[in-house]
Write a structure and sequence with these properties.
alpha/beta; FAD/NAD(P)-binding domain; 2 domains; five-stranded parallel beta sheet; 9 helices; binds flavin-adenine dinucleotide; binds ligand NA7; NADP; N,N-dimethylaniline monooxygenase activity; flavin adenine dinucleotide binding
Length: 449
């Protein structure tokens, strides 16, 4: 009997998974019946910009947390699909740090090319997944939002591709409940111009804090104070941005920090990360982790140790994104197709323990890059994903780290070489700090063209 595979989510991971199966089919292999459930009306996951905050028109929690004026925060060469390169899609070299719409066009371009839409049921969130021991299958309850109707289907495999950057982590701070201005999480940030002339307090010390602080200043905020818990990002911030240790309390508009300093602010943006949150999975199937490079419990970073017929893609903290999702998807596919045999429980546990132990020794971003590169290589060598120069991609990440140290406002003006095609990206026609228009048309415009 034909096996059935449920893919939950049609973001980059879900689309990678569909593409992986489709590639096997193109090579003449029989593939299982695929059904991808997507809660939104469109695909592309976070890259599918959604102006809503809070709940969507159906009362479902809004998934998207990407905002206007979001330019890629890493070189696009490090996320390139080896089986559908930027040259394949854009037919000309493009810059290394494109805005969101360009990457959305790229991801969905491959999906359209392969007519992957036929597998996707939109407006259909997965509400609950249970594994039935007696049948060895999953019962998946979904809701058709348009018809307001639930139904249950049975699957042999479930692949969770719901991402882990959409349910905000919202810590409490003394006095924040009486703060007389706006308090929001990065997940609800959409339009930096809302804060023109404002004094912002951004709490967090990672990518969201860095980018929201920078772009708020770029679009006219009067000042941005970044408050970190563990470590200052320590970039050479432009005038208008300062870093302070952790917020200890708020008294009216006055923020007090651990070093005794204070600052009056109008708006607070919590860039305090996200929760791995899977309320739609029964407890014994649910990955419980914070954002880390190798969440324990996932063999090869994919297979749920207690029940490897359940898979998770893209659940690690990410340097690599789309290319890593592809490699994971190819590997997951090959296990489903029986091309790769799963080892014994003991071997799985040992393999996970080996990676987790190494993760715990990682002392710098460079070591994290090497770690994720080795992880990618290990999976890549076992699947027929097209070859690409992954060492070049790893070097790009290290150069990018240096570029950021050198100039946090200028790193997006650098240009990298493709590890897939060797194509050298052009330098952008407008420096990022001066580029106000984030449309694809503006970005792809060539001088004089
Ligand atoms: P997502 O993109 O989150 O997609 C998950 C999909 O699953 C969504 O379509 C969602 O609607 C669907 N879904 C969720 N729950 C259900 C359910 N119960 N039933 C059915 N469908 C469901 N990466 C980069 O490479 N470069 C960047 O510049 C970059 N910037 C980022 C900026 C922000 C603000 C954030 C939050 C992330 C950024 N990322 C960036 C990382 C980003 O997470 C990945 O690029 C990528 O989107 C992850 O893909 P995914 O498929 O795992 O998850
Ligand atoms: P990350 O990278 O998971 O970082 C979360 C940040 O939030 C991190 O700096 C944490 O500080 C900080 N945090 C968490 N809890 C607190 C509390 N209680 N107080 C202060 N600070 C806190 O999430 P991001 O949103 O930055 O990035 C996620 C993705 O979005 C990423 O892929 C980007 O591409 C865009 P810590 O350093 O642990 O002390």
């Amino acid at each position: 009997m034909t096996q059935r595979v449920a893919i939950i989510g049609a973001g980059p991971c879900g689309l990678s998974q569909l593409r992986a199966f489709q590639q096997a089919e193109e090579k003449g292999e029989a593939i299982p019946e695929l059904t991808c459930f997507e809660k939104q009306s469109g695909w592309g996951g976070l890259w599918n910009y959604d102006w809503h905050t809070g709940t969507d028109p159906y009362g479902e929690p809004v998934h998207g947390g990407m905002y206007r004026y979001l330019w890629s925060n890493g070189p696009k060469e490090c996320l390139e699909f080896a089986d559908y390169t930027f040259d394949d899609h854009f037919k000309k070299p493009i810059g290394s740090f494109p805005p969101r719409e360009v990457l959305y066009d790229y991801i969905t371009g491959r999906a359209k090319h392969g007519d992957l839409r036929r597998y996707v049921q939109f407006d259909t969130p997965v509400k609950f997944v249970e594994y039935v021991d007696s049948t060895g299958k999953f019962e998946v309850r979904v809701k058709n939002l348009v018809e307001d109707r639930e139904r249950t289907e049975v699957f042999d495999y479930v692949i969770v591709c719901t991402g882990h950057f959409s349910v905000p982590h919202v810590p409490d701070f003394e006095g924040i409940d009486r703060f007389p201005g706006r308090v929001m999480h990065a997940h609800d940030f959409r339009e930096a111009r809302e804060f023109t002339g404002r004094h912002l307090l951004v709490i967090g010390g990672s990518y969201s804090a860095e980018d929201i602080a920078l772009q708020s200043l770029k679009y006219g905020a009067a000042s941005v104070t970044i408050s970190y818990r563990t470590q200052a990002m320590g970039f050479d911030w432009p005038d208008g941005i300062i870093e302070r240790p952790l917020l200890t309390k708020l008294e009216d508009k006055t923020a007090h920090f651990k070093d005794g300093s204070t600052k009056d602010v109008d708006t607070i943006i919590l860039c305090t990360g996200y929760l791995h949150h899977f309320p739609f999975l029964e407890d014994r199937l649910r990955l419980k982790t914070h954002n880390r490079m190798y969440p324990p419990g996932l063999y090869k970073g994919i297979f749920w140790e207690d029940n490897p017929k359940l898979m998770y893609l893209g659940m690690q903290d990410q340097f690599y994104t789309f290319s890593m999702f592809d490699i994971q998807a190819w590997y997951a596919r090959d296990v489903v197709l029986g091309r790769i045999a799963m080892p014994s429980k003991e071997e799985m546990a040992q393999d996970i323990a080996k990676w987790v132990a190494r993760e715990e020794t990682l002392a710098s971003p460079f070591e994290q890059i090497d770690f994720q590169t080795d992880y990618m290589k290990e999976l890549h060598q076992q699947v027929d994903y097209p070859p690409f120069d992954i060492d070049m991609a790893a070097d790009h990440f290290k150069t990018w780290e240096h570029d950021k140290e050198h100039s946090i406002t200028g790193y997006r003006d650098q240009a990298f070489k493709s590890p897939c095609t060797g194509t050298q990206a052009p330098v952008p026609h407008t420096p990022w700090i001066e580029a106000m228009d984030d449309s694809m048309a503006a970005y792809l415009r060539t001088e004089g063209g």
